[in-house]
Amino acid sequence: MLARPYLSLKDPYTDFSREFEHQLKNAGAAPQAVRANATATIDVTKDLVVQRTLSVSAQNIPTEYELTYTVTFAVQGTDKELLAPQTISLSKDYSFERMCCWQGA
User: Fold this and answer.
1) Contact in structure between 78 and 39 (CB atoms under 8 Å)
2) What is the CA radius of gyration of the chain?
3) Which DSSP category does 35 fall into?
4) Collapsing DSSP states into helix, strand and coil, what is residue 36?
C-alpha cells in the first residue's frame, strides 16, 4: 500500500519532512510527486518545535530549556482511511551554564 506514497507536507523543508522522505526511500518506497500516481497519501498536518524556558539563573538568564517536537499525521489509501490522524510528541530538557569572564583587580 505504501510502495508509492504521496507526501502531503505542511512544510516540505523542515528537518522532519526531509528525513521522513529519506527514510521512506531507504525502506524501498518511491514517493510520488503527483497524488494521482500514489497508492496512499501521507498527510502531515503539523510539524512543530516549541521551546519553553524551565529555569533561570539569579541574573534571570535561562539555564534550562524544554524542546517539544510535535507531528500530526494520517494515511489515506486510494479508497479508504488506512490510519486515522495521530499526534506524536517528543520532549527533551537541555540545561547549560553560561560561562562569563570577569576582570579581576
Assistant:
1) yes
2) 21
3) G
4) helix
Cell 510528541, located at residue = 89
Q: What are the pLDDT tens digits along the chain (105 aa)? A: 689 999 999 888 888 899 999 999 999 999 999 999 999 999 999 999 999 999 998 888 888 999 999 999 999 998 999 999 999 999 999 887 665 555 554
Under a CB-based contact definition with an 8 Å cutoff, are residues 92 and 62 in contact?
no
Pairing state between β 5-9 and 40-56 = parallel
How far apart (Å, rounded) are the C-alpha atoms in residues 69 and 46? 10
Determine the residue type at 57: S
Q: Name the burial class of residue 42, with classes exposed (0-12), middle (13-18) and buried (19+) by CB atoms within 10 angstroms of its CB.
A: buried
Are 53 and 65 a contacting pair, CB within 8 Å?
yes
CA distance 94 to 51: 10
Q: What sign does the dihedral 54-56-61-63 (CA atoms) show?
A: negative
- All three cell numbers of 71, joined, read 507531528
